[in-house]
Amino acid sequence: MGELPIIVFEWWKDPKGYRLAEVGHPKLLRIVRNGRTRDLELSRPLDSPDTFRIFATTATTPEGLLKFVQRFGPLTFLGNDQGELVGDVTRRAVIMQDTLKWLSAHPRRKPPDLGWSANCAAWLRWDPQAKNLRWQLHPSTLLDGLWLQFAQAVTRGVHIRSCAHCGDLFEAGLGTGRRLDAKFCSDEHRIAFNSLKRSREK
């Protein structure tokens, strides 16, 4: 039995999947359920500490957001009801991506105003493994949980960098498996980058 997780979140998603559609008055692009009944399955989309990074790198377009929702479920309560408002959620993904890239380029400077907040319930729990009390955060929605994951990552002393080969965001520093001055998300991408550089120099 490991330590208690800091962020605890269960969320409902449609086992029949989702699709992009223009619905409502006025017609707005939304991600709506394929299923017609209330049959939903329970998931734990924040069990992976990387979910916020997947959101920031893939959900900035309608198609990318659809793939994210297919995998993790809708971002807000509207998602399984009236449909997820694509423009609103993709803007949030762009803000998160831009902030992560800014922090990657300026690790010791104050970032621009983020303009976001996260709603959650905070409970104090006894952790039998660590033998002490720990906060547990229970976000209201998946979007709230992603911002909490983001905050947890950027405040725990690691640096988030953009891979010089693929552009994906990755963590560097103590406990991440990548050196603090790492420029690549993996050794494979470091080798590929240097190989491509040598071929261009010939």
Features:
alpha+beta, 202 residues, 5 helices
Number of structural domains: 2
Looking across the biggest beta sheet, what order are the strands in?
2-3-5
Total count of strands: 9
The rounded distance between the terminal residues' Cα atoms is 55 Å
In percent terms, what proportion of residues is strand?
15-25%
| Discrete helix count | 5
Protein structure class: alpha+beta
Q: How confident overall, as mean pLDDT?
A: 87
Poorly predicted tracts of residues: none
The Rg value, from CA coordinates, equals 19 Å
Largest sheet: 3 strands, antiparallel
Q: Residue share in helices?
A: 25-40%
Q: What sort of overall outline do the alpha carbons produce when their principal axes are compared? A: globular
Q: H/E series, N to C?
A: EEEEHHEHEEHEEH
Structure description:
- By secondary structure, the chain is an alpha+beta fold.
- Helices cover 34% and strands 22% of the residues.
- The protein contains five helices and nine strands, in the order E-E-E-E-H-H-E-H-E-E-H-E-E-H.
- A three-stranded antiparallel β-sheet has the order 2-3-5. A two-stranded antiparallel sheet has the order 1-4.
